[in-house]
Every structure is written in C-alpha cells, then in structure tokens.
TrEMBL record:
Occurrences of domain EF-hand (ranges): 1-28, 29-64, 117-152
InterPro entries: EF-hand-dom_pair, EF_Hand_1_Ca_BS, EF_hand_dom
Record's keyword annotation contains Endoplasmic reticulum: yes
BP-aspect Gene Ontology terms: protein transport
Subcellular location: Endoplasmic reticulum lumen
Protein's UniProt name: Reticulocalbin-3
Organism of this sequence: Pterocles gutturalis (yellow-throated sandgrouse)
Residues that span the membrane, as ranges: none
Length: 244
C-alpha cells in the first residue's frame, strides 16, 4: 500500500499523496457500497432503480401489513422515514424521471458527498435535532443530540465546553439558535477538508525525523495508526487482494 500511495515513486509519502489516496479510498468505499445493494433494489434488472422499486423493497411489508406495526415507535419511524426517503430520492433524481441511475442512487445513499444534496443533508440534520419543531436548533437541542443527562446531576466538563462551542462558533449571528445556514457551516464546513486533515495527522504522528514526509519505515513503525485510519479504510486495504 505504501508503494501505491507514493504517486511519484520517490520512496516518500507526502501529505498531498496521502490526501489523494484517502479520497480515492473513500470514493471506492462509497461505490462498492452502492454496488453491494444495487441488486436488492433493481428488481426488474433495467440498470435503474425506480422510486417504486426502492419503496417496495424498503417499505413494502409495512405498507401491506400496517396492522403489524401498531407499536407507536415503529409507526412513527415508518411514517417519518418514507416521505423523507422520497424527498431525498427526488432531490438525487436530477432528470426527474423517478428512476435513479447508478450515480443518482449513489447521491441518494451518500448525500454528503454531492454538492446538489447539501440542502437535504442540512434539512435532515435540522429535523433530527429540532425537537420543539420551531425550525431552529437551540443550545439545549444541540447538547441533547450528544448527551442525555438522565442522572439530573451536574454536566460533565466536555458538555460545558460544547455549550461554549455552540455560543462561540456554532451560533454565528448570536441569536441563541442555529438556522439552516449555521447548521451547514457546522456539518459541511467549506474550509475543512477531512482527507487533508487526516493526512496531516498521519504525517505529524509518524514523521520521526520531521522532514514533512514519511518513509516506508516510518509508516511501518506506526502501523497501528494507519490500520485505524481512512487511509487504509480501517485496515481493510491491508487484507484485501489488490487488482487496481
């Protein structure tokens, strides 16, 4: 893998080479994931997944046997998820024919990777966290999404820090709540590149002689850091056969 990440074959891995590799691995993971489930939904084998095919495969049993879903939580989940999936599907379906090509279905399953799906990602995040339904995320809703204070005791330090984060960095216009624009800035920051951040982290942690690049020895000496990294897709790349 080290040899394959080393694009210019100079025996060193740079931050840029690691960043490019991480992006390739992420993209491959996404397309493999879509390929894995494709046949489950493309029931008529026309190499497209119609909304009706997806709905039938995912919600068919519920739609045909609603009486079996009398549990309030189940009912609520299905009633909420079906229109949400339909809205997301229609946003991904760029030509509006209600049948997703491979690329459109990829955007449906992995909306965070596609520019035209960003509004959906923001909207779904808002809907998940906004418990009082006012169309905003206030500080308590933001905290409740990551911490449930069931004991009723004092909040841990990290929660207090998150409250400060909310006030200082999330609530940009200081009105006590996050609107859609502020939510987008939080979950899809324009100026943050996950792959670059991961690459910099790997170089920083493994670069013993601090020359800003990694030798194969430096990588192998810190192999456990790489096994847990997106660079090797959480170790998967170390065990699979490579035919690219």
């Amino acid at each position: 893998i080290v040899d394959r990440i080393d694009d210019n074959k100079d025996g060193y891995l740079t931050t840029e080479e690691l960043k490019n590799w991480i992006k390739r691995v992420q993209k491959r993971y996404i397309y493999e994931n879509v390929a894995k489930v494709w046949k489950d939904y493309d029931l008529n084998k026309d190499n497209k997944i119609a909304w009706e095919e997806y709905k039938q495969a995912t919600y068919g049993y519920y739609l045909e046997n609603p009486e079996e879903f009398e549990d309030a939580t189940d009912q609520h989940n299905f009633k909420k998820m079906l229109p949400r999936d339909e809205r997301r599907f229609k946003t991904a379906d760029l030509d509006g024919d209600l049948a997703a090509t491979r690329e459109e279905f990829t955007a449906f399953l992995h909306p965070e990777e596609f520019e035209h799906m960003k509004n959906i990602v923001v909207l779904e995040t808002l809907e998940d966290i906004d418990k009082n339904g006012d169309g905003f995320v206030d500080q308590d809703e933001y905290i409740a999404d990551m911490f449930a204070n069931e004991e009723g005791g004092p909040e841990p330090d990290w929660v207090i820090t998150e409250r400060e984060q909310f006030s200082d960095f999330r609530d940009l216009n200081k009105d006590g709540k996050m609107d859609k624009e502020e939510i987008q800035h939080w979950i899809l920051p324009q100026d943050y590149d996950h792959a670059l951040a991961e690459a910099r982290h790997l170089v920083y942690e493994s670069d013993v002689d601090k020359d800003q690049k990694l030798t194969k020895e430096e990588v192998l000496d810190n192999w456990n850091m790489f096994v847990g990294s997106q660079a090797t897709n959480y170790g998967e790349d170390l065990t699979r056969n490579h035919d690219e």
